[in-house]
Amino acid sequence: MTAALIDGKAAAAALREKVAVEVARFREATGRAPGLAVVLVGEDPASAVYVRSKGKATREAGMESFEHKLPATTSQDDLLTLVDQLNADPSVDGILVQLPLPPQIDERVVITRIDPDKDVDGFHPVNAGRLATGLPGFVPCTPLGCLMLLRQTLGELSGKSAVVIGRSNIVGKPMALLLLGDSCTVTIAHSRTRDLPDVVRQADIVVAAVGRPEMVKGDWLKPGATVIDVGINRVEGSLVGDVDFASASAVAGAITPVPGGVGPMTIACLIRNTFVSACRTEGVTFDSAL
Length: 290
Ligand SMILES: Nc1nc(=O)c2c([nH]1)NC[C@@H]1CN(c3ccc(C(=O)N[C@@H](CCC(=O)O)C(=O)O)cc3)C=[N+]21
Known about the structure:
Blueprint: E1 4-5, H1 8-30, E2 35-41, H2 45-60, E3 64-70, H3 76-88, E4 94-97, H4 107-113, H5 125-133, H6 141-154, E5 161-165, H7 172-181, E6 185-189, H8 196-200, E7 205-208, E8 226-229, E9 233-235, E10 238-240, H9 245-248, E11 254-255, H10 262-282
Parallel strand pairs: 1-11, 2-3, 2-4, 5-6, 5-7, 7-8, 8-11
Antiparallel strand pairs: 9-10
Helix pairs in contact: 1-10, 2-10, 6-7, 6-10
The structure holds 5,10-Methenyltetrahydrofolate.
Pathway: One-carbon metabolism; tetrahydrofolate interconversion
Function: Catalyzes the oxidation of 5,10-methylenetetrahydrofolate to 5,10-methenyltetrahydrofolate and then the hydrolysis of 5,10-methenyltetrahydrofolate to 10-formyltetrahydrofolate.
Protein name: Bifunctional protein FolD
């Protein structure tokens, strides 16, 4: 093991603490707390765990958490009615509809119904467009957390070569845009990419977001590369990333563990985005370093 560990848990705790300090100021100035509404449809146990830890983090930051649990049989119309209510509710600054949704509900329709200015997940096409064109909006929490970890580890990212493995709307595409925004030379690799190990070997920065357990091996890496592992794969009861940690940590310069890497930063960024939403609504300024 030569690589430095990138401690996402510690970075997330520090970000949440910074937001909590600013939330106290916000409450003083406005007489109200920022609020996050989380909607869970169905009883998937993994989703229930995430939703619970989001609620806990929200309250610990001094914000209000509104939790809506709906049965798995909920119709799309009933879910849209709830989204409309949350859009209209001035105590709600952020709305998160936990994905995946049951098969009778079209995710795109639901996400598009959320007011883009309350879309703290950054999943609405308006926010995707804002990110692509450099307008202020909401950036998806997982890639935003990855960017923060990279800046913390490397300082200036300008001129570095980055490979993002995975092209999802939630992680891969926004991650590539964020790295481009920091003046990296960005390659997006995916399941049809030829000679993937050779492509990855060119990169100073590797972000793995494919959902394939332990796919990225140590001998794919440029020695000293910084590796961000977005994968959360449950394999035989334990949690592993998309990177083969044992071989990769012998070659990388720095690497995120799973668990304790990107996951905790995702939740911290959700808290951050909710606070930023409340500040925009109230015209309160906030620390641009957040
Ligand atoms: N609308 C929506 N927004 C989301 O942001 C969203 C979602 N739906 N659906 C599910 C995924 C998954 N997700 C995670 C958040 C934190 C951890 C996390 O903190 N993981 C811990 C480990 C937790 C464990 O042990 O299971 C860690 O990596 O250290 C993981 C996964 C957010 N998601």
